[in-house]
Predict the structure of 4-hydroxymandelate oxidase.
Amino acid sequence: MGEPLPTDLPAVSLADYAERARTVLPPDVWDYVDGGSAAEVTVAANRGALDRVAVLPRVLRGVDTVDLGTRLLGRPYAMPVGVAPMAYQRLVHPDGEVGLASAAGTAGIPYLASTLGSTPVEEVTAVGAEVWFQLYWLRDRALVGDLLARVVAAGCRALVVTVDVPVLGRRPRDLRNAFRLPDDVVAANLPDGRDALAHSGAPGVSAIAAHTAASFAPALRWADLAWLRERVDLPLVVKGVLDPRDAVEAVRIGADAVVVSNHGGRQLDGAPASVTMLPEVVDAVGDRCQVLLDSGIRGGTDVLRALALGAAGVLLGRPLLWALAAGGERGARDALALLAVELTDALTLAGCADPAAAAELRTLGP
């Protein structure tokens, strides 16, 4: 294994932040961030499948500078990356959602604020970043309507509906740790954010899973998304799609983008790696909506792989929580700057002057 990397040296890959985060986080919080569902087969599959995607570089293309700029949902961004929606970011550092959103704003990329954020969405948008709001469907539709009104009033640029969490996946690490939220971390966007369920530990029980089961509606249907599409005049993104048939249905109800995702291996264990299904989803929707990828992205080479397979961009999750844990907002800014360097190198070596050119590359695998 070798000696741990010194934490006072600059990180040279996003993986460096994982090691640093593990040294500063309580073990149960590390497990909550790092862990997946059941036997964590899908967690491993995400990484393995990405590693099996080989990109055929082009040569003699005259590329000496790379422009990382792209357009997602019709808006310009500095690179084809967004910050994935992740709950309770103040668990890992006091800067929490505000710090990570500020880092995203500095990087010129969208920040996806979670329904289960530990900072109210109004405080997140106040930092000036481009914020998309990720919605979990609540049991009380009136509360969904109230939350949508807040999201629009706060100035969010898009609505991202997560559709792969009818119930929270069974996560053994959290069960063994009897994981619960500390008293100072709450679901700040929900009226019952201080619900005792999320803060009460018991052996063999995940308090977060209990709170989620009480709050979320398990029987979400396409008709609910159609209702949402009619109600909100924002770009609509459907996150958590793996089957191309579901992607086609999302387009039918008016989605502007879909996110091919298995929730980072935290929902149905044994589901395929997200990148494995990406080409089929891209083929199924054609040019009728954009396709994004998340789950397992760990650096610039992975972004290149996704672009070459037809994605418009990716959502980056755990590495940014690691960076936030290790260094707060500054750590997250450094991680995103490092990702830009990695992606620039990857595109240059592949003979691509911009992200659009990567779509013309051939791939082998996954």
About this structure: The CA atoms of residues 11 and 17 lie 7 Å apart. The chain has 14 helices and twelve strands. The domain at 21-359 is CATH 3.20.20.70 (TIM Barrel).
